[in-house]
UniProtKB/TrEMBL annotation:
Residue ranges constituting the Penicillin-binding protein dimerisation domain according to the UniProt record: 101-213
Domain Penicillin-binding protein transpeptidase, residue spans: 288-598
Pfam families reported for this sequence: PBP_dimer (PF03717), Transpeptidase (PF00905)
UniProt-listed Enzyme Commission number(s): 2.4.1.129
Protein name, per record: Peptidoglycan glycosyltransferase
GO biological process: cell wall organization
Species of provenance: Rippkaea orientalis (strain PCC 8801 / RF-1) (Cyanothece sp. (strain PCC 8801))
Length: 612
């Protein structure tokens, strides 16, 4: 046995073991003590006093803790307050960009021209096909419009993934495709711009791209107006990413229902396009345009360009079709500018309505020989007959009665070198040569007298004839009437400038002379029984890109004002490069204007003239 084990055994032997009697005595003592403590009356027992140093320690800990807490709060709120606020804002704030549709665009009668709608787009990913491509093409073809299995197979070969197959699918088509459960076939839902009238007003409306940004027409020029008020929304969120209701504005899901209303009359637009298409086809012309303006305020009731495009499928069209050439392209107006020049001469007092001018058929200016289109003279004719015969020679004689400087200043008053400020993108200003060049050479005055040697846009010509119709005021051609609600109530309207450029009495005299062009002159093809209409034909040489004129290329046009007894509407028809032997303003453009005027009379309820 080791020494340590021996010591433990000895100590156990020496320790007294309790007997049964001792155990009972101890238990009774403990019990009696518990009973005596329970039975002792209150107040008899005195708790042992807490040492003073313990109280001091507790209070010291509490004071130090309060000081530390206060210091920490000072650090967090005062010293680091701004920094922590920024951190909290970045962690809690979230920028929501809820889908807010662009405003709809409607015509003057409330017909929808552009709106947002839910669109189903079909994509295929050949790399994910689990069936033969032939089987997938055969399954999709009956559902899709005008796409054979062979067409689809060719599309499948374009690339391995992300091939767009069809857009604008109906709900029924989308449901049928979903039921096929084909791997590698994907249907996407998105809101897209929709143009229910297709190409009828595309040159006016324009289109939006895949990012829903306007790229042409009103969609571009009125981009800010088309966007609704709520562009983005900042809200607070919890640590779990849930939006805190208290920080969500009450009207977050509301947006005003205002629409952009145009001055356009869709019915007249359709009639004008049909009339223009017929003549373009008949004369195999390059392009054409029709403009109808209410001269009282500049409202455009119709603006047609051909050829055009379908804004729903703009990507299938040539880029050059996206511009509206009535505001972006310059041309020499030719004889349609002669009524404007007559007004300038009348206002200058160098002629009167009964003034007689001798037309010999030719005149030489600065060594240049100028002829009438007919190559013949008209003899002694008054001012109305000058317009009826569209005499170039007589116009040169009339405008030479003004000094070159005076004539130039009067042309500047017409704002030929300025834009009309129409609410369409891409407008260019007209081109009038500098005063130095114009006054230095007599040929400049001569060619300008019959509408050549300078250029303007078709819209500018309509604006100038509007001044003849409305008593001499230059109004702003425009398409946007304003913002209206679903009830048609106008909530906002753009303001346009008005400028007096021609004496009211002079403008009236010129309009009455233009009536004789229709009744007795080159505009007879636009006669409408019981209605008094003024007009002027134009057949101008087409300027080349490097100066001079293009051989066998011309622009034919006809401008009309009606009704003569109370002039209000201006109609312009322009056809560029008609083909054939009998291509003049009277034969190509005037019939278009006549059809448009007939539609205008019917749609606007213009009563027959009292006298004719």
């Amino acid at each position: 046995m080791s020494r340590s084990n021996f010591k433990r055994s000895v100590s156990r032997a020496k320790r007294p073991q309790p007997t049964t009697k001792n155990k009972l005595f101890a238990e009774k003592s403990v019990a009696s003590t518990r009973v005596s403590r329970r039975s002792a009356p209150p107040g008899k027992l005195k708790p042992s006093p807490l040492p003073k140093w313990r109280l001091i320690l507790v209070w010291a800990v509490m004071v130090v803790g309060m000081i530390g807490l206060g210091w920490k709060l000072y650090q967090l709120q005062i010293v680091q307050g701004k920094e922590l606020q920024e951190k909290a804002r970045s962690q809690q704030a979230v920028n929501l960009r809820p889908y807010i549709p662009r405003r709809s665009i409607i015509d003057g009668e409330g017909h929808v021209l552009a709106t947002d709608r839910l669109e189903h787009i079909l994509y295929v990913h050949p790399v994910q096909f689990k069936q033969p491509p032939e089987a997938i093409a055969a399954a999709l073809s009956p559902i899709l419009d005008n796409q054979t299995p062979q067409d689809l197979m060719e599309r499948f070969k374009q690339r391995k993934t992300g091939i767009p197959i069809a857009r604008n699918l109906t709900e029924g088509q989308a449901d049928r495709i979903k039921q096929l459960r084909l791997d590698g076939v994907e249907l996407n839902e998105t809101y897209a711009r929709f143009y229910p009238q297709k190409e009828i007003a595309s040159e006016i409306i324009g289109y939006v791209d895949s990012d829903r940004r306007g790229q042409a027409g009103v969609e571009l020029s009125q981009e800010k107006l088309l966007e609704r008020d709520l562009l983005s929304l900042y809200v607070r969120r919890t640590a779990l990413g849930e939006i805190i209701p208290a920080f969500l504005p009450e009207d977050v899901l509301k947006s005003n229902d205002l629409q952009i209303q145009l001055t356009l009359d869709l019915r007249l637009q359709r009639a004008a396009r049909l009339a223009l298409q017929q003549q373009l086809k008949k004369f195999n012309a390059k392009r054409g345009a029709v403009i109808v303006m209410d001269a009282t305020d500049g409202s455009l009731l119709s603006l047609v360009c051909e050829p055009t495009f379908d804004p729903n499928e703009y990507y299938k069209s040539r880029v050059e079709l996206f511009k509206n050439w009535t505001v972006s392209d310059l041309y020499e107006p030719g004889s349609t500018f002669k009524p404007i020049n007559i007004a300038l001469a009348l206002e200058a007092g160098v002629i009167q309505p009964n003034t007689v001018v001798f037309d010999s058929g030719a005149v030489t200016v600065d060594g240049w020989n100028i002829f009438n289109a007919t190559k013949t003279g008209n003899g002694a004719i008054n001012i109305a007959e000058v317009l009826q015969t569209s005499s170039n020679v007589a116009m040169v004689h009339i405008m030479r009665r003004l000094s070159r400087k005076d004539y130039y200043q009067r042309l500047q008053k017409l704002e030929l070198n300025q834009r009309t400020e129409i609410d369409l993108p891409g407008e260019v200003a007209g081109h009038l040569k500098s005063e130095e060049i114009f006054t230095e050479r007599g040929i400049e005055l001569a060619t300008t007298s019959f509408g050549q040697g300078f250029s303007l846009t078709p819209v500018k010509l309509v604006q100038l004839h509007g001044a003849l119709a409305n008593g001499g005021k230059l109004v702003t051609p425009h398409l946007v009437r304003g913002l209206v609600d679903v009830k048609g109530t106008l909530h906002w309207q753009p303001k346009h400038k008005v400028k007096q450029i021609i004496d009211p009495q002079v403008s009236k005299q010129v309009v009455e002379m233009m009536e004789t062009v229709v009744t007795d002159g080159s505009g007879k093809s636009s006669i409408i029984p019981q209605y008094r209409i003024g007009g002027k034909t134009g057949t101008a040489q087409k300027a080349g890109p490097r100066g001079g004129y293009l051989p066998n290329a011309k622009i034919t046009s006809f401008v009309a004002i009606l009704p003569i007894e109370s002039p209000r509407y201006v109609v312009l028809a322009v056809v560029d490069e008609p083909q054939g032997g009998n291509t003049f303003g009277s034969t190509v453009a005037a019939p278009i204007a006549k059809q448009v005027i007939e539609a205008l009379i019917s749609l606007k309820g213009i009563p027959p003239s009292k006298t004719q």
